[in-house]
Design brief:
Rossmann fold; six-stranded mixed sheet; 6 strands; 33% helix; 20% strand
Length: 162
């Protein structure tokens, strides 16, 4: 199983947002750059991947960029274990997934910690709209994944045409 970790795109800054953190949206620039990064990510992955996202708005908007760019039928499922503070629940949920390729859209520091759990070694935080992929060749368990790539959004954006 391949697991692709995607950090949400550039969101409105906390100090500029009066509402709850869970409702902070992507900025207009964040939406544009995220859509281009997702386009590059799609070039690396097979069609028809399963997308699981945090229910928080900025992550959902990032996941929806996939559908906007794909031109294909893609399912997005909002899962509570991808929201901030749910690392232990995410670790327990990952081995229960039954698919060839899953894209997890979420938040830092949980994404890089989950990535570290999967590979068995710590990795730096993903940049906004950045992505990393691991492959589990057997059991989905701690330290059993091989890191296949770790890409900043700049590289992902370069993989697609403007």
């Amino acid at each position: 199983m391949w697991v692709v970790f995607v950090r949400h795109g550039i969101a409105v800054e906390r100090e500029d947002w009066a509402g709850p953190d869970s409702r902070r949206p992507l900025t207009p620039r964040g939406r544009r750059r995220t859509k281009r990064a997702i386009g590059g990510l799609q070039a690396l992955l097979p069609a028809g991947v399963q997308i699981l996202t945090s229910p928080w708005l900025r992550a959902r908007e990032t996941a929806e960029s996939w559908v906007d760019s794909a031109g294909e039928e893609t399912s997005i499922l909002s899962v509570p274990w991808m929201r901030p503070g749910q690392l232990a629940t995410a670790k327990a949920a990952l081995p229960k997934l039954d698919c060839q390729t899953v894209v997890l859209v979420g938040h830092e520091p949980e994404l890089s910690r989950l990535l570290g759990w999967a590979t068995g070694f710590p990795l730096p935080p993903l940049k906004k709209a950045g992505a990393a992929a691991v492959e589990f060749r057997g059991d989905v368990a701690q330290g059993r994944a091989e890191l296949r790539w770790y890409l900043p959004p700049r590289v992902l954006r370069s993989l697609t045409s403007r």
